[in-house]
Structures are given as structure tokens and as C-alpha cells.
Fold this protein.
Amino acid sequence: MSAKHQLIRSLVAVCVLAALGTLKIYAGVPIASLPFTIYDDKDSTNNHYIASGWIGHVNGVKMNESCTNNPHGGKTCYRFEYSEPDNWAGVVWQDPVNDWGDLLGGWNLTGAKELVFWARGEKGGETVTFKFGILGADKTYSDSSGGELDNVKLTANWKEYHIDLTGKDMSCIKTGFAWTTIGQGQPVVFYLDDIQYK
């Protein structure tokens, strides 16, 4: 078979798979330069994604993205509080803002090896799950991959955490970061800083 015929067959196969919904085409997604920062300081021009996706029992969530209480780096960090004694809640960093898979967006993070962030609890012992890429293939515009650190028990001092991206398709990440927690009988207060893909 000639190279031309092989190319034509490949293109036909791609079109068929796309029509069947078994192949996602992420055209028009901007390519990120690494390292790629989600947050390093309030109003930093390096920041990407927006913490706009509040999920679960959101009335119990408070967010301060300008907290000056012992940031890990720079002048500010995030402070989150979930005040309900039970149930669950979380916050998702989105691109575009407030989008749950209906709009084109996100970043091509191909080449990134890990998602790195710093976190600490108010007292230590707070349990939080951290993740990225939560939009599944049922969405019109989904994340190309996802990952998480489940039930992380935080310390009272800043600690660096890593989500390994080895083998993941990072060509379209629309939800760049997220956290969820469940009620733990008392307010869950924790801090985040220096969130970055490397």
C-alpha cells in the first residue's frame, strides 16, 4: 500500500472514530509554557485557571485568595474553610470560568511531569483530597486526563505534594486543580500556595 493510501485510511479512521464519539479532538487549545502556574500570589500575572467551580454543600465553604497568614511564598496564599460537620464540598479551578464542559477552553500541558502544590492545615490532621481533570468523556469539551491524591492528611506546617503525570494525556486540561473534603465534626481549615505544573 502506498504512503498516500495509508494516509487516507488513517484520516478516514480518525473521522469515523470522532463521529462515533470514541475519539476526542482537542483543536485550538493553547499550548502552555512550562512551568505553568495556577497560583503563586493574589493577582499575579503568572496565575492561570479560576477557582470558580464550587461543588457539594457550598454554603459551608469560605475562600480567601488573599490570605496573609504565613504564606509559603510571596505575600499571599489561599485559605479555605468548610464549616459543616458532615456532608461534603469542594472547589474546582476552571478554564473557562464557571464552565463544566460546555465550552472550548483549557490548556495543552503536554510535557508536564507533575502537578506540584504546597498545603498545610490550620491545626494538622485535616483530611482533603486533591485532584485535576474531573470532566469526563460525557462532556462536550472534556479533560483529556485526570489524577488525584486521595484523603491527604495535612500537617500544621507547609508540605509539598506531587501528582505524577507519567503516561497521562495532558493535551487538554480544563479543570487544572481541585479539592474536596467531607465534614469532620468541626470546621476544616487549610491553606494552599504555589500550585504549578512542571
Notes: DSSP finds one helix and eleven strands in the chain. The CA atoms of residues 130 and 179 lie 4 Å apart. The radius of gyration is 19 Å.
